[in-house]
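Bumping with the actual sequence this time:
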Amino acid sequence: MSRTLLVALAHPDDEVGCAGTIAAHRAAGDRVVMLFLTRGEMTESLGPIPTSEVARRRTEHAHEAGRILDAEVRVLDFPDTRVEVTADGAYAIAREIADIRPDCVITWGDAWVRGPRHPDHQASGQLVRNAVTIARIAKAVAPIEPHRGAAPIYAMRDPNSVLPLAAVDVTPYRAKIDEVAAFYRQYVRWPDPTWLENRLAAAGTEHGVKYAELFDVWDGTPGVRPTLTA
């Protein structure tokens, strides 16, 4: 049975950390929607050009990454580096969730190391987690029908997390991960290939596969599996 995976993150290129999982879900026949809260307009990696032009190009990057991963893409207009946890923000995301109707959600979680602890990541994760609940409330998302189906939440895992863990075996999708990473590397000079290899290989070794991506389980199912909905 086809399911829907929502990947709701802060910036275009955040999805590099779960690209293999996205590819695994698409290979299983699941619909995948990548929802970016910001357009990533504060990056300096594109050179001294107007912020509006950075936003335009970064939005194009998000859609190209979606093409590579065969995923749908939506981009909201939260301000890059200034994402705040507000009721209005959670309501806006809840309406997207009610429209998308996911069976599973990937977002940011709590983090302590540089990169994952970016304030936009932290705020985006809290907003999305709040919005999953608000999307169940008819008056909050009207005229869209509320989404009251199960939508377990998995968060990009920080190395210091003590939450239960889910590991997705992404070994069959390593080439797709590299394709997405190489695309972004042209423009934002990230991710470093050695870092990516070490991250995937270390996670895989820990869980008995060659390559893996790891997630905190907020209200889903721990363990090693081919997809988060399997």
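The tokens above came from a reply further down the thread. The mean pLDDT is 97.
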